[in-house]
Amino acid sequence: MPTTDADGSDGLPRCAWANRGPALMREYHDREWGIPVRDERGLFERLCLEGAQAGLSWLTILTRREAYRAAFAGFDVDILADWPDSRVEELLADSGIIRNRAKIASVLTNARAARRLREEAGGLDALVWGANGGVPEQPGYPDVAHVPAATAASEALSKELRRRGFRFVGPVIVESLRTAAGLVNAHTTDCFRHAELAAPAARPAAPVAPAAPVSAAAPVPAGTVGTGVPGDR
């Protein structure tokens, strides 16, 4: 089975999952997935959306993205951190988002944790990228079957985020954040985006200063490989 497909219009080879659904998935693959995100709001939005996706397909969340942005103040950490817990009831009435109480409440909880993190460790961007040494990983996955759902790095970062008060940040969610936000170039090696994101120009000029060290994690159990791409979630 080929690892990439062309959609028939531009002939570009892509990660196989990008052409299995509607054009929205292909656009997400081409224009966003795997491009390094280093600002707090961008990382926070992706973390919240990956948490909302838990147990659902990524397309379900992607089609509701603008509704999420409207519901959660554009994922502005300071605004959300000041919202009282009573706002959860109001958000549960919003048909544009997934109306799961725990997932909605976690956005407010995580905003408060992200604001504290600025004072404690330089912010979410410093913690996430610091754990990565400031440089995107280039694992060179030959096909989607080799893209893991979780890794030792996501296990360690998940543990650190939970220690700092974040919720809905399990290892699979964190690895999804890492691939979506460009900490890992998870495009398959024959995808046209892989080479672009592996080029020196796609990498940061200087690494982000590391936050508090993240301890090593135990090896990821068998069975977590091959489900770490948006089209398989």
UniProtKB/TrEMBL annotation:
UniProt binding sites for Zn(2+): C15, H29, H187, C191
UniProt xrefs under Pfam families: Adenine_glyco (PF03352)
Source organism of the structure: Allostreptomyces psammosilenae
Record-given protein name: DNA-3-methyladenine glycosylase I
InterPro entries in alphabetical order: Adenine_glyco, DNA-3mA_glycosylase, DNA_glycosylase
Keywords: Glycosidase, Hydrolase, Metal-binding, Zinc
Listed EC numbers: 3.2.2.20
GO biological process, one term: base-excision repair
Record-level Gene Ontology MF annotations: DNA-3-methyladenine glycosylase activity; metal ion binding
Keyword Metal-binding: yes
